[in-house]
Each structure stands twice: as C-alpha cells, then as structure tokens.
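Hi Y.,

Following your request, here is the sequence exactly as I used it, all 314 residues.
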Amino acid sequence: MPMNQADGAVLDVGTNSIKILCASWEDKQLVPVYEDSIITRLGEGLEYNQYRLREGAMRRTIEGISELVKRSGKYYSGKIAAVGTSALREAHNSEEFLQRVNQIAGIDIEIIPGEEEARFSYIAVRDSLNILNADNLCVVDIGGGSTEIINGDNKRGNIKNRVSIPVGAVKLTDQFLRSDPATVQQITAAQGAVQTYLSSLSHPESDSIMVGVGGTVTNLANLVLQRRTEKNSALHGLQIDIDELEREFTRLAVATVNEKRTFPGLDPERADIILGGAVLLLQVMTAIGSEQLIVSTKGLRWGVFYDRYPCHIS
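Below is the corresponding structure, written out as tokens. Let me know if you'd prefer a different format.
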C-alpha cells in the first residue's frame, strides 16, 4: 500500500480504549485506509483514586498511542487530530498525561466537552448510515466513562437536543458490578443509578430511529448475531430488537468473566465490562421507548474526521 494514502487521521483516546482512523475521500465518500484499536483502560478505578489517572493506566495508554501512531505512519504522515473524552475530562492530572503523550508520542490531545463528543457521534452516524427513510434520529453512544444521547433532524442535519451523562460501561462496572458474577442487588443498584441519570432525558420524536454506537453496542450485536442463522451479516446497519438484547443480558448477568470470555462474538477484553454496557443500553432503550436499534460501527472518530478533514470535492 502506498505511503500517505490517507487524507487525514483521527485518534480517539477514550476511557476504555484508544482508536485510530486513517481515511481518504473517494467520490465524496469517506473510505477507511487503516483502522485499529487497543484497550488500555485509561479511566480504570478513577473514582477510587481521588479522580487521578493511575500510573499504570497512563503508561499503558501512552504505549498504546505510540504504537498506533507508529502503525499509522505508513498511511498518513501529517498532523493527527487527537481527542480525549470522559476520563480526561474528569481526571485531576489530565494535564500531566497530555504533556507526557506529547513528549513521548508527539501527539497533542484535545479534551472535548461531552456535548461536543455527542455532536461528533451524531455526525458520524448521519453521514455514514444514510438512513433515507427516517425524519429523525436518536443516536446513543455508550463509551467507557460516559454515554451520549443525541436527538436530531435527519433530513436537515441539525441536532435538536443532546445530553452527555457521566456514566459508561467501565464506570458503571467499577461503581456497582464488582462481584463475579454480579449479584442481583448490584445489578438492581446499577439499573437504578442509570435511571436516575436518565430521569430528565428529552424523549425523541415518536418516529425516530434509534442508532447505537460504541464497543458495547457492537459487541452485544455480535452476540445477537451468533443466535441468528445469518451469522455473517455486516454489523454496520444491522437492526436488532430489544428482546434479543434482553436475552443476551440475562445470559451475561449469570456468567463469570472467564465464562464470558468464551462467548462467541464477544471480545474477550470486554468480558468484564459488557454487563455494565448491557445495563446502560437497555435502560436507555426503555427510557426513550425504543423496541429496536440500528448498529453503527462508525462512531466518534468518524465524526471528528468529517469535521476536521472535510471533503473539498465540488
């Protein structure tokens, strides 16, 4: 593959994982040239360490960033647009981490507000799925440390309202689901906490189509696919029903982490947080009254790319 084939690159430094996208514009369509991700758990135990990033988590993440930057160099040699989300918003020592990343990997990370994270997720979904039959979209992006919910006008492209709640799959697991397997009481407490966060949520329009984004959604969708006959269906654009998700939740709730690691379709590195993600997704779907959702594999980093490297073809 030729050098510098990409028109830009985006690095997403999240609470649970770091992800990179190198892509190019071809006939007004954004085409990935190189994508990769590494789970580093930057936000691990943040609440129990006086909201300071742990040294081990910082080292893992800096090493991971350095590795992704090195790998992406074959495809793009310009300035990488790097963004940080929930863990970096909340940590008291974020500035130290940013300085170390700059010194070691040569990357400048911009910590974006939750509302901006929501906007980027919405842009990514709207521009990549091209759901022509929907007047309104409700996009739910479940991360490691926060969850973004965005209601928008699909035809006009404008966002009607958006909210970022400070709980994601990693944070919910750390706070509530600490046994292996989690107890009924822990799961109930986790559900109640999410319901509290969602109590003031603006309901989408009745004709809204719900779209789910993030590792929680794609891994749950993979688990659902394993139960279907068409196991090789593409994840991007896949439609799944709430009853299928509830079946997976029931299975995950009683399994140990080691048992979950053997589940076909589930990334073993997400085995310890997937139950927390499932709690979040089901509570959000219930709160907004959605019985179905469409899966998007193109999340935050795609939205940042659309914003920072727009197509200039007339």
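Residues 223 and 229 are 12 Å apart (CA to CA).

Thanks again,
Q.
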